[in-house]
Structures are given as structure tokens and as C-alpha cells.
Amino acid sequence: MGGRALIHEVVRWIPWAVYAALALLHARRWFSAVPAEPTEYRALRVGAVGLHGVLFLATAWLQHRLPFGTMWEALSLATLVLAGSYLLLEHLARSSALAAPFFTLAAFGSGLSAANHEPPRWPVHVQSVLFAAHVTCGVAGLAFLVAASLLAAAWLLQYRELRARRFGRLSQRLPDLATLDRLFLAASIVGTATLFVGGLLGVVWMVSQGRELHTVLPKFSMVLITVLWNLVLQALRRREAFSIRAAAWMGFVGIVPVGVVIWVGAGGY
Q1: Are 130 and 204 in contact (CB under 8 A)?
Q2: How many domains are there within the chain?
Q3: Can you tell me the mean pLDDT for 17-39?
């Protein structure tokens, strides 16, 4: 293995190592007798996301192209967006209670991306601005929808604890129900909109590259199912007769169509 190849290999695995270390750190802190403050380890979290961003740009410089050539490279970007979106949600919720699951998911995504290194499937000359916008919107939408599902799960956990009048470590570490509900809805709205735009741009891009429309629609249909699932959720959530708990369950189960979209998209062009 040459020096340049060794650098590529090390750079690919650094985000996984950093996210895994953060996940373990926050998981250990979860079981501590003293609840973690929102600002605790914040510099490490911001630094980890910033480092991932710098390494993403460094990879682009080393390869002389933007890392958009495969869905596994796109997964690395999705992980970066997911981790960055968590920092925003953490700031709004004023709580770092969800750091362990979020960074565990980030470690899983970056690990898959690093382990499935392969040559670009798409020629460099077709990686246009339209393609870049498609990938960016798509992975951002998926990241926010995964975040929404995790927030829905956190709401259900907090609701269970409060209903059972267990005011222990778990309930103290999670944000209050109103905050979780607000963040869940916001993440769902943003994720639905950006995923739909990304999917639509993907259809336009593939057709512009000579693909027949009927060969593209099956993949786009999975995006539409996910979008419709979240639109129905938003509509039901605004009805007084529809309980917040039912909306949270629907939001949590919504991670299934999101996973299908990721699985279908992993087939690439």
C-alpha cells in the first residue's frame, strides 16, 4: 500500500473512530450518578463534527473530486449532516440527553461508509451541480427524518417514565415532552421537504443522463411513500382528536420507510 493510499485509508476511518469514542463517552456518562450538563463535552461534540467536515473536504482534495461517486460516499455526507443536525437540535432542546444514540448512529453510518470503499460509479463529468444538489438534499432529508424518529422514541420514553411517576435518571436526562414534541415535528417537516426536493432533483438528473422515466420511478416511489407518511403524520398531528402519543409512535415507525429509501438508494445509479 502506497503512502497516498494509506492516507486515504486512515482518513476514511477517522470519523468512525471519533464518533464511536463520543458514543461510548456519553453512554458511560448516562449511567453516572450525576446527570450530565448540556454544556458537558460540547466542545468535543462540535470538534468531532468539525473534524469530519474538514476530512470530507480533505478527501475531496486528495481525490481531486467531490466525494459523490457512490452511495457509500453519500452515506459519509449523510452522517456528517446527521451529526450537524444533532448539534442544532441539542442547542434548541438545551439538553445533551440524546448524544449517545445520535453518535452511535453516526459511528454506524461512518463505519459502513469506510468499510465499503469502492471506485466511483458515476463518471466525474456527470457529477454536475444538479447531481450535487440531489445528493445533498437527499441525505439531509434522510438525516432529519432519522433524527425525527429518534426524537419520537425519546418522547415515548419520557412519557412512559412520567406516566409511571418514575422521576429518576432517565426522565432527568431527557428533555421535557413539549420540547421533544416541538423538535420532532420540526425535524419531520424539514426532513420531508428536503427529501422530496432531493428525490425530484434525482429524477431530473437521471433523465438528463439518458435514463428512461419508467426505470427511475420505482426508486422515486419509495421517496414518495416516505414523504406521504410524514405528510399524513403532520395532518393528523394537527387534529385535536389525534393524540400526541399516537403521533410519536407513527413518527418512530417512520424510520422503516426511511431505511428502505437508504437501502434502495445504496444500489446507486
Answers
A1: yes
A2: 1
A3: 79
pLDDT tens-digit readout, 200-235: 988 888 888 777 777 777 778 888 888 888 888 888
Residue type, 56: F
Q: What is the pLDDT of residues 124-168, one digit of tens each?
A: 555 566 777 787 788 788 888 888 888 888 888 888 888 877 766
Q: Any idea what the Cα angle at residue 148 is, between residues 267 and 257, rounded to 5°?
A: 35
Q: What residue numbers bound the domain in which 131 lies?
A: 3-265
CA dist 48 and 22 (Å) reads 8
Give the model's confidence band at 170: pLDDT under 50 very low, under 70 low, under 90 confident, else very high.
low
